Amino acid sequence: MRYKDINPKFGTTNLKDKVRLHWEQETCGTRYGFSNSREKYFKEIEDTRYRLEPYILSFANFREAKGKKLLEIGVGGGVDFCQWVKNGAIASGIDLTSSAIELTKERLEIANVKNCNYALRVADTENLPFVNNEFDIVYSWGVLHHTPNTERAFQEVYRVLKPGGLFKGMIYHVPSWVGLMTWILHCFLKGKPFRTVKDAIYHNLESPGTKAYTVQEAKDLLTKVGFEHIKLSAKLGPGDLLLIQPSRKYQNPIFKIIWKFYPRYLVKILGDKYGTSLLIEVIKPEDKKVI
Fold first, then answer.
1. pTM of the entire structure?
2. What is the b/e burial string over 25-57, where b = at least 16 CB atoms within 10 angstroms of the residue's CB?
3. Residue ranges of the domains in the chain?
4. What DSSP state is assigned to residue 77?
5. 153, 127, 94, 36: which is closest to 104 by C-alpha?
6. Over 50: is that where the pLDDT of 6 sits?
7. Which CATH class is domain 12-173+211-283?
């Protein structure tokens, strides 16, 4: 399956509405907040995020953004966005959903962060509401593969970055353990072994239309958009190790057994090569100012 465009059975608007509805119903990362105390609730979300994906801290390098103009695309529960603001970034954040924006605002208010230090708004990554060449850093963790036109999203990232600006992000990778498990559950066991792993991900992993890329496909896409100094690396994610809290559709006894006896030790031994997270660091060329 190649991502020249969206799946033809969906219209662009219809698919984007489905994506928005999915994440309005459950803001990314909030599955790990249980406390009735809002302060403890946000702390639970943050602690779990960095426990399951500790490499985010070194990859993002929040201190690096001090005094710089930064855009985060897809703030979700606001964990990373709060880190950018606390570390002195001149931060703007967007999300496709109003629930994520309101949750992130609440998080910052509880942390006593003054609203003059950041800006948040509902917006579409395929049509960013910012002028050309505005940001020193653009950051997006696990978001751009969900929008129907991912290439357009990367073009927008390129447009709003200053020449010499840095994009750091994560999109989903194949081959991966999550991709294989999704294919087994939704294709092989349902008598449809002819369907591809990418097709299984597209129709069954998180929001409708989710995409995953090989390292070469990601490199080709980023090069086409115009980025240089491309660094890509696959990383085992919590889904690959089944360390995540299962969603509602994976609550029956069979899945509880799978979660308990899953061979995490073996997956770790085989390393990051088959990780679902594809980490991206790219630079917009110095001489490529968008007019």
1. 0.93
2. eebbbbbbbeeeeeeebbebbbebbeebbebbe
3. 12-173+211-283
4. T
5. 94
6. no
7. alpha beta
